[in-house]
Amino acid sequence: MRDSRRRGPDLRVDKERLWKSLMSLAQVGAYTDQATGLRGVNRLALTDADAQGRRLVSRWFEEAGLEVRVDQIGNVIGRRAGVEDLAPLMSGSHIDSVPTGGAFDGALGVLGALEVVRSFNDAGVETRRPIEIGFFTDEEGARFGTDMLGSGVLAGRISLAEALAKGDRDGVRVADELARIGFAGSSPATLEQAPAAFIELHVEQGPLLMAAGADLGVVTGVQAIAWRELVITGKSAHAGTTPMSLRRDAMLAASRVVTFAHDMATSGRYGEHMRATVGRVDLYPNRVNIVPSRALLTVDLRNPDDLVLRAAEGALEAYVSELASELGVVITSRVTARTGAAHFDGGLQRLLARHMDECGYRHQRVLSGAGHDAQEFASRCPTAMIFVPSMYDGISHNPREYSTIEACEAGVRVLARAMLELAC
Amino acid sequence: MRDSRRRGPDLRVDKERLWKSLMSLAQVGAYTDQATGLRGVNRLALTDADAQGRRLVSRWFEEAGLEVRVDQIGNVIGRRAGVEDLAPLMSGSHIDSVPTGGAFDGALGVLGALEVVRSFNDAGVETRRPIEIGFFTDEEGARFGTDMLGSGVLAGRISLAEALAKGDRDGVRVADELARIGFAGSSPATLEQAPAAFIELHVEQGPLLMAAGADLGVVTGVQAIAWRELVITGKSAHAGTTPMSLRRDAMLAASRVVTFAHDMATSGRYGEHMRATVGRVDLYPNRVNIVPSRALLTVDLRNPDDLVLRAAEGALEAYVSELASELGVVITSRVTARTGAAHFDGGLQRLLARHMDECGYRHQRVLSGAGHDAQEFASRCPTAMIFVPSMYDGISHNPREYSTIEACEAGVRVLARAMLELAC
């Protein structure tokens, strides 16, 4: 596979074309952020905005000569035939976003892979292996509550039936939304043939590469993630007349969970990479003069080590149980998502590092704090990821998310070289 | 005024008629509580349900021979002419509810006053003074953010223009909703002539009377209340990649405010009657995997002493300011409602106690932890309140709110005797 004679002419990645595609896609679902006045991206999975983005990128896939298929969970995959009928080399990411997203998260991996195909086309490259690039449904999990939904089905971790039955907070189901937006495909949502390899390009969404002065990152793996949904049931009561000692205040209990999770993550007891976030709280009845009777909150816990994460989850459960009896509330806890730590292929990591060296890019090994579609593929084939540095302390899931055109170009250039080597 | 010869025949309060009215009104806006399966009342001010309740009670007023007027803030007042053209004796309360209300809060005071009029009619009583009974707009403040809105305008504390311009959380204005439901009246929303007295009957909404084994309460006054709306602005960020130390988490800050307010109220430093409630929290963007950038929360503080309440408010402000710099967030704080402590008329309190004694009811002096329309009248005329015990630890603002038919009858009986004495 490393026969450099098969590479054909030297590839030229067109950074302007890449940037134009990124900025065009960022117009789809664009909104003006309340807090900052900046333009952000709101392309929640399977909404009208997501559908519009899907149609746009599918058209670009077709214009690049790819044969496009949509599978039963709505993943869209474009195939470039190989000279031989071998297992395909795959790349891709997602185009759905959180409601307060930016232009790069996911989109860079999809449009970067598209730029690789375009550069192969420009250079008249034929590859021995087929190449498949794609975007996968609801990677963010921000709408239907389970991240990596599309790639999780594809890799066999989540059953198709379970995924299709998931509902958003209004009870609207994945299956119905796929049908509504015209992306309920007929292609099987499985990797019938395991890919030869999967490489995903993504923005770091963290501050480490910028801090280290690195041009690119070679990702060693992905943190284990566990999401919990807690429902706290207390008793609604009058804010003026109910003595403090007689209250069963769901919001007080929720606040204690928030501070406990934060203190746990910053204690050092679970390592320096422990993360804990309460991102969602829904109160009922949510009125100024009523002690809340019910709170729903989510807890997002992450750690690079599966066992350490389990220990943190256990500590949270123990605390919640004590808290319930202390405050006289009932707390139910449900795991809504769990993905184990992923460890990427050593050989592919070395291959990526070699290409970065050959291009003169400073690089660094990094562990991903965010989940990515690549982690689903890691159980099925050799998998790796390239990270492009994120500006502004690595801010992401925010309209201020930004990577420079040069950084994006560097990532795509290394992706193109690695894909050429692996596909030839 | 205490000339007992003018009382006419002994009054007979019809407890079954009273109860039937209470239960009929409770059907308007009835809903089934998620948590308990009980039937509750959701009659938020100026909604369709409130309008339906207003029309029902107005019809009952008319059927009782009252001349009904609607003023410019939507207060509905029924007048029973007196023999002489004197300042009227007034009674009344409210029929709007919190979204999770019960059958008694407010309704007992309105329908109890109506039962007094009905009993006067039955007994052929003519009074020297006119009697006016009414219900006042958005006493709860649960929709438009300011409690005692209607009676506050009537008493001159809130300007009519300010009240009409208030919006709910969707930006819908009081003026538009009054017009929409047909209760934008033309009668001036002022007490052109100060009433001779105002007496309000209400359920206690607290546990004290039941605990003391009292049949009724003579209310000495109402706690001072201050409502604040805090807006915490942090920075949205990715839940996986953003190190804990780089976060500016609006939810963490909100949680600290909740626990501070609770600890302050239970510290004893502000007396045994100090109350603090965070009843509403709205997070943005409110997603599982995003560190929240913005939290809006309300803080409801109450104390019987205006100065002690001010001290508690000062302590909260100081804490919020420290917290903002500790967590790197911006916190703005706005007072959305403030009512000073009300002290009811000593003579009227003695008059009520005497009638309770004459009827053989055990009674107790109590301070109200909840705000009531009567506190607005206290600045304009001699004012008093009768409390009827609440069952179940005094639970209110909850479908389990309950007072027995005998307790309601006792309250109305004393109200009728007191009104007869004062009006004759």
What do these coordinates show?
Two copies of one chain form a homodimer. With 424 residues, chain A is of the alpha+beta class. Chain A contains twelve helices and 18 strands. Chain A is globular and about 80 Å long. Chain A has two domains: 4-222 and 342-423, Aminopeptidase; 224-339, Alpha-Beta Plaits (2-Layer Sandwich), CATH 3.30.70.360. In chain A, helix 8 runs antiparallel to helix 9. In chain A, strands 3, 4, 5, 6, 7, 8, 16, 17 and 18 form a nine-stranded mixed β-sheet that branches. In chain A, strands 9, 11, 12, 14 and 15 form a five-stranded antiparallel β-sheet that branches. Chains A and B meet through strand 9, strand 10, helix 8, strand 11 and strand 12 of A and strand 9, strand 10, helix 8, strand 11 and strand 12 of B.
Mean pLDDT of chain A: 94
Largest sheet of chain A: 9 strands, mixed
* Number of helical stretches of at least 4 residues of chain A: 12
Query: Radius of gyration of chain A in whole Å, from Cα?
Result: 23 Å
CATH architecture of the largest domain in chain A: 3-Layer(aba) Sandwich
Beta content of chain A comes to 15-25%
CATH superfamily of the largest domain in chain A: Zn peptidases
Measured distance between first and last alpha carbons of chain A: 6 Å
Which structural category do the helix and sheet elements of chain A fall into? Answer: alpha+beta
| CATH class division of the largest domain in chain A | Alpha Beta
Reading the helices and strands of chain A in chain order gives: HEEHEEEHEHHHEHEEEHEEEEHEEHEHEH
Q: What oligomeric state do these chains adopt?
A: homodimer
Using the alpha-carbon principal axes, give the shape of chain A.
globular
